């Protein structure tokens, strides 16, 4: 039996480096990770730190053929080092860049 998807946006497999910035006790902490999938509203990444659902972070990444993006995101779920992030407050040009990249995948 096929399980129907309740996702609002399709996910696309990808592979790119990612930096997660989070405010710590002594300023911002930068954690390196790898984005393994992206959608118009968020991305999935493997990160060696464990963030909690609801935590706000900044994501820094460069999609092939575009400039570096720095986006606010909220952690939606975590399973071990796998994290799901939802973009927050995307500007229209940023959303268009992500959509265009997703269409190439």
Tell me the layout of helices and strands.
Elements: E1 12-24, E2 27-39, E3 42-47, E4 56-61, E5 69-79, E6 82-88, H1 92-104
Antiparallel strand pairs: 1-2, 1-4, 2-3, 3-6, 4-5, 5-6
Please provide the ordered H/E string of secondary-structure elements.
EEEEEEH
Biggest sheet statistics: 6 strands, antiparallel, barrel
Average pLDDT, all residues: 92
Number of strands: 6
Beta strand %: over 45%
Low-confidence stretches: none
State the shape. globular
Widest β-sheet, arrangement of strands? 1-2-3-6-5-4
Tally the helices: 1
Percent of residues in helices comes to 10-25%
Radius of gyration: 14 Å
Distance between termini?
A: 27 Å
Question: What structural class do you assign from the helix and strand content?
Answer: mainly beta
Description:
It is a single chain. The protein is mostly beta strands. It contains one helix and six strands. The relative contact order is 0.21.
Précis, in short:
With 105 residues, this protein is mainly beta. It has one helix at residues 92-104; strands at 12-24, 27-39, 42-47, 56-61, 69-79, 82-88. It is built from 1 helix and 6 strands, in the order ββββββα.
């Amino acid at each position: 039996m096929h399980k129907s998807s309740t996702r609002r946006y399709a996910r696309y497999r990808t592979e790119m480096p990612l930096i997660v910035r989070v405010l710590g006790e002594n300023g911002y902490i930068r954690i390196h990770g790898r984005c393994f999938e992206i959608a118009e509203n968020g991305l999935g990444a493997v990160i060696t730190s464990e963030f909690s659902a609801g935590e706000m972070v900044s994501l820094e990444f460069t999609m092939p053929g575009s400039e570096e993006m720095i986006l606010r995101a909220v952690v939606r779920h975590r399973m071990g080092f796998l994290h799901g992030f939802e973009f927050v407050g995307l500007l229209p040009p940023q959303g268009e860049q992500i959509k265009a990249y997703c269409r190439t995948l």
